[in-house]
Structures
1.
Amino acid sequence: MLSLAVHQLSKHYLNGTAALTDVSFVAQPGEGIVLLGANGSGKSTLLRCIVGLESLSSGSIQVGNAAIETATQSQLRSLRRQVGMVFQKFNLVNSLSAFHNVLQGALGRSKGPRYWFSATAPKLERERAMHCLERVKLAHIAQQRVDTLSGGQQQRVAIARMLMQDPGLLLVDEPVASLDPKAGREVMDLLWEIVRERQLTVVCTLHQLDLARDYADRIIGLRQGQVHIDIPAQQITNHQLNWLYEASQPIQDAQLLA
Amino acid sequence: MKHPSQSKTRSSSHKAKYTSLTPPPRWRKPSPLVFVALLIGIAFFVHGLWISELTPARLWRGIFRLSDFLGQALPPNPKRLGSIIRATLETFEMALVGTVFGALLSLPLSILAAKNTTPHPWWFSVSRSFVTLLRVIPDLIWGLIFIIVVGLGPAAGIMAITMDVMGFCGKFFAERIEEIEPGPIEALRAIGASEVSIIAGAIFPATLPSFVASTLFSLESSIRSAVVLGLVGAGGIGVELSTSMQLLRYDEALMVIIVIFVVVLLVEEVSSWIRKMII
């Protein structure tokens, strides 16, 4: 488990769009934070900044003891090893088996061509990958290509890949947005079980308000790139939640609905 | 409530306007640039027809010469069939070795020449221009160059085919890499994988079927160019064919042509079968 400190973070794109403005928050080790906000409120950009996939315009991000904004390419890579990511669209390599995708979770800590192919990977890592698949209850389909699996199964493979990576901080980007409600619940249950048993610090974006309330320790609400809500999950009111979405709706849309 | 009435007035006014409009003209006068380009094209065509002296009388005489040739060529002479088949196999092997070398060398080349994987824009433009250079020089000229470099024989043919395949595969591989989905790459990058691991773990698995298909296409075309490369002395069956033709042994030449035909057909069949299996 790692701490995460975001301080006065701003991100502007070259075309002048301000994706994030002056965002600050601190996540304690082991804390579960859910990020809420409408489409385009900057949630995904924030996650991508934390893992260094986007450069910062200003401000700082501290993961554990390392600062993202000053890290060199190789420092950034060793930092990413400790930050797991789970995506809305799973982002698995479709033409490979579930097992091989999970094995790729080791690519961060291990260099060398042995790790590129599932046939040549060391025995220890192959066994670990199998254990990770077993943890998400998918050991029986280890050899199947991931593009033949259902959405819920693919997301579980992605979670197993994250387990294989063994991170201290976990960033989750709308993990259940592409899934039906039942599969979504199952994935969230599984994900949170793992988060708790490994005591991972987690920042998770969601669109489902009920899920946010059920799983989060703390809820941070973003609107147009700014933090508007930052309170413990049990204190949040429906009114506050709805306001995040309604108030930021563009005016033309509101007219069309009327 | 405002919307329906508004849209109604708009559509009716639209209709009224539409009936008063005249349709666009059927022909447009070409712009001066197009007109000049057309004139130049026609001039080249007419001049080309004129210098070829492709007259009906010549074609008529040609038919008799063709029957003359066929009379001497038929039946094909299988006396040297053993050495013909051996030379044809050499042609096939030249094509195979050259294609494998070319495809393997195209892998790193295409990484440099794809916008999303190139380490630096500078590398991108240098490698793209290199690939274009490989392609604009015809294989026969590569063959002549390598005959000077390594002497007569299959080595020159293999090198010429390698260049040709790199020009083709380098371009196609790079374009395939540019089409790849960014998601899995981003996932591996977030894991902390090195760029080389990302290429081996996410890019090549996604692009491999299409790489194999392009390589098989270039194997097919390599076989044909390997035959022609033999005509200038770069090894293989082409040498046999040109000797037979020059010594006016048309029956032997026909045997060579038949063997080439069978081999090219076989390779195309096998490669299209492999392509169907992998896609």
2.
Amino acid sequence: MWDKEKIKELQKAKENWEKKCLGLALDDRSEQRERFLTDIGLAIERIYTPIDLQQINFEYEDLGFPGQYPFTRGITPLMHRNEPWIIACYSGFGEPQICNERYKKLIEWGVDKIVMAVDLPTQVGYDSDHIMAKGEVGRVGVAIDTLRDMEILFDDIPLNKLKRVGMLAFSFGPIALSLFIALGEKQGLKPSDFVVELQNDILEDFVARGTYIFPIRPSVRVATDVVGYCASNAPHWYPLCLQANHLNASGTGSTKATAFAIADGVCYINHLLEKGYKIDEIAPLISMFLDERSDFFIAICNFRAARRVWAKIMKEKMKAQDPKSLALKIAAHSHGGETLLEPINNIVRITLATLAYVLGGVQVLSNASYDEPLGTPTEDAAKIAVRTQQILAYELGITNTIDPLGGSYFIERLTTQIEKQIYEEFLRVEAMGGAIAAIEKGYYLSAMTEGANRRQREFEKGERVSIGVNKYRTESKIPFGAFRIDPAIEQKQIERLNRVKKERNGKTVRETLEFVREVARGDRNLIPPILEAVRAYATMGEICDVLREVFGEYQAKEKYFGG
Amino acid sequence: MVGKVGLDGHEVGARVVAKALADAGMEVIYTGLRQTPEMIVRTAIEEGVDLIGISILSGAHMTLLPEIIRLLGDYKANDIHFIVGGIIPAEDIPVIKQIGVREVFLPETPTSVIVDFVKNLIK
């Protein structure tokens, strides 16, 4: 692509510039930092030129065209020119009927996809009346104990009214899937009528989120059964979204997070291949949730590099052939270092984070609301978040061309550097024996804590700037959040749970739970028995307790410091 | 002792603070996740700690923190200092401090502030 002679000339011209122009400038001015180091350990150079792109093959291998291997520039030939990414909102709080009102508003405002935020007891498989649920019901998400709660939550909201529906289900994937299938049935819908997307990536819970229930290997079985079931019964659903975002947020840095997420994906895929599924039956159902919060350009290049790395690994290592297996679907949630002080400023941060992900070629995007550090998002703040996405989608010509930053010397160089980092980290994890081994050896955790400590140091030294907090600080009073969860809903939820238990057929519930137990003990797919139990109004806790009985519970090791 | 009470699984902040305290020369125990108020208090008494630091981000603080205070009273262990960190709405902070929590540290607090506070407290 680049004429060798022209590059030599350019090299000379650059040296000339450095001596004369740059040299003069540096005589009486300096740069703000000695090295412009980023969160992922890469230093950003002063200027990028074709000299930096000598290794990159623009025509085919490295860049190519959108919709063709290796998909660097985008996974389809039309991208956002066809229609914008899926505009999603992550939402959920309190009891189902309160939450139902917010969901109706979201749909009214034009949201394409709702991802249900569920409360912590639900996330770890406890009913609202469990002793560990005390004080937690309906707080970080909506309380879901039975199918009845889903019916109330989606009252007057047919599942096919949205382009996609999802639930923040990490450790209870089979139950989440079953709840959607059973709810669809109540609404007169078949799985082919709507689209469900689940996170269902339990591996990263052992490091970053802490909402595991069962030990690692049974958890992988639980998660992969969901994927296997969808491969056979609902191949247009997305039952596995590999999570890099929690890993990055917890400290690993975005490139390690991406590598770990890919390694987790390979682990799940291998599990399914061993069960007899074919790679091209499985990989198209997998998407990835990427994240980078401290650098606008790394956020973009992380996406482009991730697509290239995934494509290469799927093709060369996993022997996938279907383009749908090779093209990585990317989801994201815009966060930008939101602050408690002067929270309105977060609108700016979130907007720019959203823009970065759009420029990176995202498929499904939700974004934080500015008041999230203060508590559950208020209606006004949630609306601004939705409008932010819509403004980026339709105003200012941002989506008129595919991969607008492609070809920028900086972007291509950065993409290649990040790709190298991701791939090397992935190989490191594979050399340890794969994702499960790396987690058990504490490798993911040490990457997380190293990064978290480094970031804290940088923040305290002022190297990691937070405007209004550690630079240009004028406020010290943290505003009150406007939205409070009424503690009385805990009791109301428990009363509803008790009513459901009274009204359902106890015998059917017992029989279905027995069937769950039987299947859990063997190696058949867990979804059919769990679906039966969910239809019979078995509770989240009852189903999980049966699984706890068979699989056991994960015991995290305590850690002692110092002394 | 740095602990996580309730179901909240985000422990990065707790680990960062635990390390900062340990680096400052203190003997630190980190309990890990999913401790009940009972487990927190019993571990604190068994290990003979001077201070309990609870990290909580789930919004369940108004249920779980008073429960810890109550148990400390029941076990006659009120002399153990109690600090809290995490996501606590600004309007709840005075209420928490009134029931016996010595200080609440929100995100963006430098660890040096926490370390100095603890050092002064335990003196």
